[in-house]
Each structure stands twice: as C-alpha cells, then as structure tokens.
Amino acid sequence: MKKFFLLILLLLISCLPKNKQKLTNTDDSKPKFDCSKFNLKVGDILFQDSDCGPFCESIEKVTFGVNGAKFSHVGLVITDNANKLIVIEAVSKGVVKTSLDDFFNRSFDEKNRSKVVVGRIKNEYQELIPKAVNFTKSNLGLAYDEVFDITNNKYYCSELIYDSFKYANNNTPIFQLKPMTYKDPETNATFRIWEDYFKKLNIEIPEGKLGLNPGGMSKSKFIEIVYFYGKPQGYVGK
User: What ranges in 95-151 are assigned the alpha helix state H?
Assistant: First the structure.
C-alpha cells in the first residue's frame, strides 16, 4: 500500500496560491517566449516544473512524470478572441486566461530555458479537443479549488484538464484518478507544510482521497510528449 501511494499525487503549483510560489526571471530583462522554436497547437497540454519552495519539495518527493520529470503545474493551449494562442489554467485567482509570455516565464533551467514540456493529444483522440477547449472556456472565473476536492464546483490545475477531456469524451476520463498522499515516503509522516496548510483552512488533510497531478497526467496513454522547451527537474533523457 505504501508503495502504491508513492506512485501518486500531491498537487501542484499554480495549483497552489500565488503567494506560495517562488518564480524566477521575473524582472524586466526576462526573455520573451519564442514561438518559432516549436509550433504549439490548440489543445496542447503544457506541463510545467515551477519553483515554490517547501510545497514543491513535498510534491516532488511523491510524484513522477514522464522519464522522472518533476511537474507541478499544467495548462491548456487555447485561442483568445483575436485567434491568438494563449493558455487557460486554474490558479489561485481561479480559472483564468494567461499569455504565453507569462506562462513560460515562471521558471527556468540552468540554461535559462523555460521548464515547460508539451504534451499533445494523440491523433486518434484529436476530435476531443474542441469540446474540451469549450468546456474550459465555459468555466472561466470559477474559483480555485484550494482543498483539492474533485467533486466540488472549483478547480485546481490538473482537475480542470481532467474534467475538460472527460466531458469531451462522453463523461469517460482519459486521465486516471489516484489516491492522494501528503506523507513523506521516507518517514510516513505528513509533511509539515501540508499540516500547516490544511490547519489554516480548518479541514482534515484529505489523505487517500482521489485526485491527480501533472506528473501522472504526463504519462497518459492518450497523449504523447512532443517537445521540451527546457529540462524539468528529475528528467532522465536527452
């Protein structure tokens, strides 16, 4: 059972309140997103390795993405009213639209490359994208799910993507829910950062409740990883 829990969860980053994040390269000299490096498409899923101190450290101990990558946030590529590519995501402000520049300039690897990896829905499932995108847009402005409850009418980042493609696929999910854990695998004790977090919310820690995280989503059989802008922590590969 302990080993089973290690394969699973702990949420996210922008899926965490913004004041919990520690972003880099945020001054006026930060690089701009270069769209010429890779042609993003509507429906692309952007997996991000963000930096947020103890929260990310606890997440990274229990979640693993494709080839060991440590992802802590995820967003979906859509278009705005001017047909320009942007990202829709669930963050502390709720479900919002975000420019590519803002999304890609949150964290960088040692070579100053954005720690974002592109997942693309496989060809045989591309028909799901329009309905999934419309679903996310219809939920703009909904509140952020600070208690990570998959059943309420709020969203954390992974949950938004999960529900959008579940809706598009006739209520059949393409990403798998797993029991969440907030415990250190080395000690089996709850991480202090999560004890404090849920204590402030005055709720019990949802240990074992169903949920999902960006790392697990990156390994879905319904998507393929098509591009690395930078190298996320933990990634074993070229």
Answer: 100-104, 129-138
